[in-house]
Amino acid sequence: MNIYFSDLFLESVEKLPEDVKKALKKKLGIMAGNPRHPSLRTKKIKGRENIFEASITMSMRMTWEYFEDGILLRNIGEHDKTLNKP
């Protein structure tokens, strides 16, 4: 599965601590094979059509949607801030 990145996602990744970037890399490997893998704790965001969230760490989330032949990563950051602006 192809993974695409929004500009917001890429800008937000730059600001992440190194340990979170490392966790993100691992989760993206899992996501490429199965965006619904249990370790991602993927779920649909209520009130948003076709936008999902996945866990990076216990406090960090990323949002994404299906896009053409893969997925588009939309945003990443702290749980509440990220889910308020998926």
Account of the protein in words:
This protein has 86 residues and is an alpha+beta fold. Helix content is 35%, strand content 31%. It has helices at residues 7-14, 18-33, 79-84; strands at 2-5, 43-44, 52-55, 60-67, 70-78. The longest helix has 16 residues, at 18-33. It is globular and about 30 Å long. The relative contact order is 0.23. The mean pLDDT is 92.
Characteristics of this structure?
single chain; 86 residues; alpha+beta; 5-stranded mixed β-sheet; 5 strands; 31% strand; globular
Rg over C-alpha atoms, rounded to the nearest angstrom? 12 Å
Largest sheet: 5 strands, mixed
Strand neighbour order, sheet with most strands: 1-5-4-3-2
User: Can you tell me the residue ranges where pLDDT is under 50 for at least 5 consecutive residues?
Assistant: none
Structural class: alpha+beta
Shape: globular
Can you give me a brief rundown of this structure?
This protein has helices at 7-14, 18-33, 79-84; strands at residues 2-5, 43-44, 52-55, 60-67, 70-78. With 86 residues, the chain is α+β, with helices and mostly antiparallel strands.
What are the SSEs and their pairings?
Blueprint: E1 2-5, H1 7-14, H2 18-33, E2 43-44, E3 52-55, E4 60-67, E5 70-78, H3 79-84
Parallel strand pairs: 1-5
Antiparallel strand pairs: 2-3, 3-4, 4-5
